[in-house]
Sequence to fold (560 residues):
Amino acid sequence: MLNNYFTLYHVAGDMRRHFTGAVFTDIYSQSKNELILSFNNHQSLIVSCEPSLNAAYCRTLVARAKKNSLDFFSTLHGRPIHSVAVQGGDRELVINTGENRLLIQLFGSKANVLQVDENRRVIDAFLHPREITGHVLPQPIPPVRPSSLDEFTTRFHAIGHLSALAVLKGMYPLFGSVLIRELFVRAGITDQRTVAECSRQDIQRLFETANRLRADLLADPSPRIYSDGNKPSVFSLLELQSRPHESVELFDSIHKAIRVFLSATRKTKGFLRDKSELDSAVRRELDRTERTLAAMAKERAGAERADQYELFGKLLLAHPRAAEKGMDTVDLENIFSPRRESVTIPLDPYLSGARNGERYFSKSKKIRRSLEESAHRGQQLHDRYEILKRLSENLDRVQTSVEWDEFAVQQSDTLAAAGFDAPAAKQKKEDLPPFRLFTVEGGFQVLAGKNSENNDLLTLRHARPNDLWFHARGSGGSHVVLRAGSGKGEISRRAIEQAAAIAAYYSKMKSSGIVPVAMTIRKYVRKPKGAPAGTVVIEREKVIMVEPALPADAKGQLKS
Fold:
């Protein structure tokens, strides 16, 4: 919803109130697909033309980098903004500078910023200027939404074989997929129905709900970011009833919400890319090491050949006259065996029996030396294989950018030992989540908040819906989250008790012998609107009685 019509409607409204009369002081780019427009009111407009992350938002003046930045639209420098509007039928912001206009078109992969004249002829462009300069842009045609129930009903039944959801998308293109699904939820109708399955009452509810939803979108926004665990999923102008189990963060500024969503999403995309690259490299090396170990296992069969060559040498030296030059083989009694069986020994016909014996001793010694070296190298390879295997298992558990940052710091030594550069060597410990960190039985990770605001950050932003959530019952204290999937196998009773003990330890009942701790699943924790920091409401709680304590690692040191 970053480039949704209604989002741009409110961005344009803010700019109209605060930027009208402001003068362009600088227009430049210092990041791929991002344009920064600065004004004399100490504000900047940031435009992201990234294909999957189109957005426009305002913030305080952005300092321009001394290097690696490019100027754009230099003819607009010093010109004032006369007006700002959003096109009625498209994702297009229009900044009027008098003689020319600046069009901010957020059309997905075709997003661009264009300078045009009064006839919409392109004078200059941020992206692909050579291809589109001189072209005349068509006038956008605003979609016509149904103005009455009768018109809505007629259009709804016009194409009877489609799903109701597809028909509504066609009638309200400005809503987009997220808001269309929200419309169905608010109307209390499943979006899986076909047009033919919708009753008269269903159609009326959809029409009335669509009108109310549109009015809510045009009213003062209540910007928020919904997250699935630590991954931002949707930016929204209002509460989405269609996402009851996702955590949500509210903002008092639409511009700050857009900026935070862009930053978090880019970080998530970057982490997924970096994780994929490292995962592929680790798996390739793991496969190569496994093949090498298998080949070395076959080579160890050479030990039998070394014993055989040594026996040949001993027998030839024990019977020095039995083999002469010119002979290809010789049969000798094995005097070193209780059975005294006959042994056929291949010979080099150009060598005497004694020299053949020496040759076999030399070959036996060479094989044994090779086997010793192979055994030493094999142990090194086996150790490396175990390191790579652990790395691969730990990588599989990394699901969020926050966990990726933790992985980069915690596994830096292991990565170095395996011959890999740390994926985020620039990451420092202060970049880790600002919570107390612990490891409980099974290798599961536990996070504990440090204060009321920090508790909100942990519960509402960092915890995933299926994580286990703990808090000392009837007492102030830390929110504690046990991350599902962060350890091996299922979460044990012992791990749950350890997490509960952490919640008891960081509560006002720390000095008590036994403390009741409430436990539930994170998706059953919600924050009432307007509630003080750290205050939440929980459902389906289970009370665990534990002694306040912190877990210790194998060395008896706290993992915090």
The first strand starts at residue 24 and ends at 31.
